[in-house]
Each structure stands twice: as structure tokens, then as C-alpha cells.
């Protein structure tokens, strides 16, 4: 049977992308600036307009959103400060009102993880740990076809694992010593500024300088990679994944070169070699994952499954935001209750 077409939206602080997706393949894609300063309603208006502009006849819409998403209410919590009035927004209700479509919402990095696990670098593997390195460091966990959301939707928050390289450094979450404080893109740029006095540089310039032989730039990126390797090894030791998938705009080759040996050195010997691979879907990963979540949230027809994972992974419509994710949502299933985000 031909897979249905699903609309997908990836909302970011600076741009919003939308796509039509069928069976993990992006059929059409468009994007526009996110009207972040105009508030949540304007952001959802933009998302709906992008979906309508693609035409087609999608059966549902999935949204990857910044911030935590409560798996029981579909509401955004612990919202990003980059979008005004984003906290406590019911994204599913908002898109249903604007588009007349059922849907699902999950954290953007959880969407990345679901997309890569089902249709990308982790396809066919039972347990996948995903991590995206960009403005922040986020992650997600998919196990036995289900995305962990956790009790509050915070499962998979890779960026907030404490590491020795970040001791004393403030994290955007308000705590100190988390890996995001040293390994995120802005953290690497800040680390370079602290070493050299070169304030205000973008990470792209720090990377360029590292490739040109600047020892301070290379040291900052190396420290970030080593810190992230230690954090991911701790999670690998806890979860015993089949693969760790790393993506995001700040996951540059120099960071990965430092990450891999630090990760291998800190993993339990009994695990053997844990595969650590780059993401396969690029910037489509969040869209593909959001579409997958929406598809899983649809009622399953008698005698068939609504999505690619096993038919036994039922959907709890009360937790459609996690849409067959009992694994860590944007990056969790309540107290890891299995929602079959």
C-alpha cells in the first residue's frame, strides 16, 4: 500500500521549514524567516502558510518545535527565549485550527532523532542515540521503535550532562558544568574569545582559523569534541545503543575527530566498539522525524500499522505529541511510560 503524504514543519529561531513527506522521502520543501519577535500566533500562521503553499493533500501535520514538549498535553514548556510568547503554546491545537489536520508535536532534536532512527543513519537498528550540535546540544533516544519522552518530555537532553571540561562554566539552562557550556557552537566561539580576545566571531570563522593552523581555534574545538565524547560515552554506558548518530551545524569534522577517541576511551569495555556515525538526512532529519511522529499519531486501520515501525507500537492519542515515542522526546515516555513521542 502506498504510504500517505504527511506535512512536516521544523520551527527554528530564525527560519521555519515545511515539507511534504512520504515514507521518509521529502517530496517538496519550502521555508521562510520565523517571525520570532511577533509571537507564537505569528509563528504558527507562518508554518500553516508554508504548508498550504506546498499543495498536495497531506493527511496530517507533524511539527518539530524548540523547547520541551509535555508528552501529556502537547504544550511547549521550558520554551526558547528566541520566540516571544512560545511557552505554554499548544502547537497541535494551533495547527489543527489553521490547517484542519490532525497532528503531532515533538522537540526539534527529538524529531531529528526519530527521523535518523527510522529513515536515516540508524534505520533498522533497535536502539539509537541521536545528538545534534548547533546553537545548543540536544539529543534523543529511540528504543524498539519508540522515542523516549520521559516524565516531562526532557528525555535525551544530552547537552545537560555534566562533564569535567565544563566545570564552572555557565550553561544556558542556568546550571554550570554541562557539556553544552563547552561544546555548543556559541560556547566554542566564546571559548576562542576567552583565549584570544577575538570577541564576536561566528563559529564558522573559528573553524576557518583552526583549518588555517590557528592553535587556539583548534584547541577550543578539540576540547569541545572531547567533552562531548565523554558525555556520549556516559549515555552509551547507560543505554547500550546500537549506534550513536551525530549531526547539526556545529558537528564539524574537527569536532568529530576529537570526539571519537574520547568516546571510545570512556565507553565500557564490555560494550565493544559502539558505532558512532554522522547523520544521513542533513537538514531534512527534523522534517522527516516530524512527519513520522504525525503518521504514528494517526489512528491505525484494522489489520495494519500507520507507520514503518512494528504494528505493535500502538499510539496513545492522549500523548500524540510523542506519537509512538516513549523515548526521549526533542530530545522522553513519561517516567518513561511507553507511548507506542
From TrEMBL:
It holds the Pfam family ROK. Residues 301-314 have a biased composition (Low complexity). GO terms for molecular function: kinase activity. Residues 300-341 are annotated as: Disordered. Keywords: Kinase, Transferase. Belongs to the ROK (NagC/XylR) family. PANTHER family: N-ACETYLMANNOSAMINE KINASE, ROK (REPRESSOR, ORF, KINASE) FAMILY. This is Glucokinase. It comes from Micromonospora coxensis.
Amino acid at each position: 500500500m502506498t504510504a500517505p503524504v504527511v506535512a512536516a514543519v521544523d520551527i527554528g529561531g530564525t527560519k521555519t521549514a515545511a515539507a511534504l513527506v512520504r515514507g521518509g522521502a521529502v517530496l517538496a520543501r519550502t521555508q521562510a524567516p520565523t517571525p520570532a519577535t511577533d509571537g507564537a500566533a505569528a509563528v504558527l500562521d507562518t508554518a500553516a502558510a508554508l504548508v498550504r503553499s506546498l499543495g498536495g493533500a497531506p493527511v496530517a501535520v507533524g511539527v518539530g518545535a524548540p523547547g520541551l514538549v509535555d508528552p501529556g498535553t502537547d504544550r511547549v514548556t521550558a520554551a526558547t527565549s528566541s520566540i516571544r510568547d512560545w511557552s505554554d503554546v499548544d502547537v497541535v491545537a494551533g495547527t489543527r485550527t489553521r490547517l484542519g489536520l490532525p497532528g503531532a508535536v515533538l522537540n526539534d532534536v527529538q524529531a531529528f532523532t526519530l527521523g535518523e532512527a527510522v529513515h536515516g543513519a540508524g534505520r533498522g537498528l533497535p536502539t539509537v542515540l541521536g545528538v545534534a550540535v548547533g546553537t545548543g546540544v540536544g539529543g534523543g533516544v529511540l528504543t524498539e521503535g519508540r522515542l523516549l519522552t520521559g516524565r516531562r518530555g526532557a528525555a535525551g537532553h544530552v547537552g545537560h550532562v555534566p562533564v569535567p571540561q565544563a566545570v564552572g562554566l555557565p550553561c544556558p539552562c542556568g546550571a554550570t558544568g554541562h557539556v553544552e557550556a563547552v561544546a555548543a557552537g556559541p560556547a566554542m566561539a566564546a571559548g576562542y574569545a576567552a583565549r584570544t580576545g577575538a570577541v564576536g566571531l561566528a563559529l564558522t570563522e573559528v573553524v576557518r582559523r583552526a583549518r588555517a593552523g590557528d592553535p587556539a581555534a583548534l584547541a577550543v574545538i578539540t576540547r569541545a569534541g572531547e567533552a562531548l565524547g565523554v558525555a556520549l560515552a556516559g549515555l552509551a554506558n547507560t543505554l547500550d545503543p546500537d549506534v550513536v548518530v551525530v549531526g547539526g551545524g556545529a558537528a564539524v569534522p574537527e569536532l568529530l575527530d576529537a570526539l571519537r577517541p574520547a568516546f571510545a576511551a570512556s565507553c565500557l569495555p564490555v560494550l565493544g566498539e559502539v558505532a558512532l556515525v554522522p547523520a544521513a538526512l542533513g537538514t531534512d532529519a527534523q522534517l522527516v522525524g516530524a512527519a513520522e511522529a504525525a503518521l504514528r499519531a494517526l489512528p491505525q486501520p484494522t489489520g495494519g500499522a500507520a507507520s514503518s515501525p512494528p504494528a505493535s507500537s500502538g499510539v496513545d492519542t492522549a500523548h500524540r505529541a510523542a506519537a509512538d515515542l516513549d523515548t526521549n522526546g526533542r530530545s522522553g515516555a513519561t517516567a518513561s511510560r511507553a507511548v507506542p513521542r
